[in-house]
Amino acid sequence: MITTKNNIYLAPLDNVNCASFRLLCKECGAGLVSTPMINTKSFIRERENFYWYKNEQPLLAQFIGSEPDEFKECVQELDNCDVIDLNAGCPSDDQIKAGNGAALLKDLPLMKRIIKTMVKYSPVPVSVKIRKGWEEDDCIKIGLLIEAAGAEFITLHPRTKFEGYGTPADWSAVKKLKKSVKIPVIASGDLLTPENVKECFDKTECDAVMIGRAAINNPFIFRDSEDYLKTNELVKHSKIERINLIKRFIELYHKYEKRYDLAELRNHCAWLVKEFKGARKLRDNIGRCKTEEEILKII
Ligand SMILES: Cc1cc2nc3c(=O)[nH]c(=O)nc-3n(C[C@H](O)[C@H](O)[C@H](O)COP(=O)(O)O)c2cc1C
C-alpha cells in the first residue's frame, strides 16, 4: 500500500474530478485524489487531454477498457502518479456494451489478464475498483482473483451492477472481503457525512475510505471526517468559509486547467453552493450565468 497522510480519499468521479477540483480536495485534507476514469483508447489517441500535476500527489489514475494491450500501452512509463487503478465497476450502458467497467465482473479470466498486464508493465502499484458482483455478491471470489493477479489493493463499492444509489451500500460485503484477502481494502459507498465515515471504519475495519458524491458539494468533508475520527465532534463551516472555498476553486481553475470551459466552472460553483440557504435558487441562477463575473457576483 502506498503511504498517505490519512486514509480518507477522493473517489474517481467522471465529469467532476478535474485537476483544480482534485487540488481543492487535497487542500481540504484528502489523503489521496483520483482522476476520473480514463478510457484506454482515448488516452492512447489523445494523451495531451489527460493531465495531472506533481502537487496533486498522492494521485490514483484510473483507466477503463477491455483490451490488455491497450492497458500495456497506457501504463508503461506512467510514473508521474502513485497508483494505477482498473475500473471494474462502471455500470453505464455504453461501457458495458464495450465490455468495460462492471462487464469485467462477469469475465474474470479477462479481468485477470488485464490486471497481470498492468502489474507487469506499470512502474507504480496497481489497484482495482470493483462492485460486489454482476447480479449477486461475488466479492470474495473476485477479490481473491485480484489479489492473486498481483494488485496491491482493492476498492469495493458494495453494490451489484444493477443496484443504484437507492439501494444502501452493503458494508457487510466490505467486512467480508477485508477478512478474506491479505491486501488492503478500501470502502466506497454512502460515505455522505463524517459520521458515515466513522461508522464505515468501525463496521468494516477497512484500510481506507473513498468519498464520492459528498465531496462534490462539500470538499470540507475530508478534514471534517479526519477531525471527527479523532474528536467525535462535528465542525460547522461559516458562510464566509464556503464562499472562500468557491473563490479558491475558481483561482485553481485559472491556474491549472489547460482549457477554460465556462460550463465546467459553472457546474462546480453550482455544486459548491449546496450547503447555503436557498441553494436551489442559487444553483439555478448560477446555471444561467454567461460569464464568470456574473457567477462571482452571485457568490
Ligand atoms: C458523478 C459520478 C461519477 C463517477 N465516476 C466514477 C468513475 O469515473 N470511476 C469509478 O470507479 N467510479 C465512479 N463513480 C462511483 C464513485 O467513485 C463511488 O464509488 C460511488 O459514487 C459511491 O460512493 P459515494 O456514495 O461516496 O458517492 C462515480 C460516481 C458519481 C456520482
What's the CATH class of the largest domain, please?
Alpha Beta
Largest sheet: number of strands, sense, barrel closure: 9 strands, parallel
The span between the termini is 41 Å
Count of strand segments = 9
Fraction of residues in H or I helices: 40-55%
CATH architectural category of the largest domain? Alpha-Beta Barrel
CATH superfamily of the largest domain: Aldolase class I
Report the CATH topology name of the largest domain. TIM Barrel
The radius of gyration computed from the alpha-carbon positions, rounded to a whole number of angstroms, is 19 Å
Which consecutive residue ranges, at least 5 long each, have pLDDT under 50? none
Describe it for me?
- The protein is α/β, with parallel strands linked by helices and 299 residues long.
- It folds into two domains: 8-231, TIM Barrel, CATH 3.20.20; 239-298.
- Helices cover 45% and strands 14% of the residues.
- It has helices at residues 19-27, 40-45, 68-75, 93-97, 108-121, 139-149, 171-180, 194-204, 213-217, 221-231, 239-256, 262-272, 279-287, 292-298, and strands at 8-10, 33-34, 38-39, 59-64, 83-88, 126-133, 153-160, 185-188, 208-211.
- Strands 1, 2, 3, 4, 5, 6, 7, 8 and 9 form a nine-stranded parallel β-sheet that branches.
- Helix 1 (19-27) packs across helix 11 (239-256), helix 11 (239-256) packs antiparallel against helix 12 (262-272) and helix 12 packs antiparallel against helix 13 (279-287).
- The longest helix is centred in the C-terminal third of the chain and has 18 residues, at 239-256.
- It is globular, with a radius of gyration of 19 Å.
- The protein starts with 7 loop residues before the first strand and ends with a helix.
- The mean pLDDT is 97.
- The structure holds flavin mononucleotide (FMN).
- Flavin mononucleotide (FMN) binds next to helix 9.
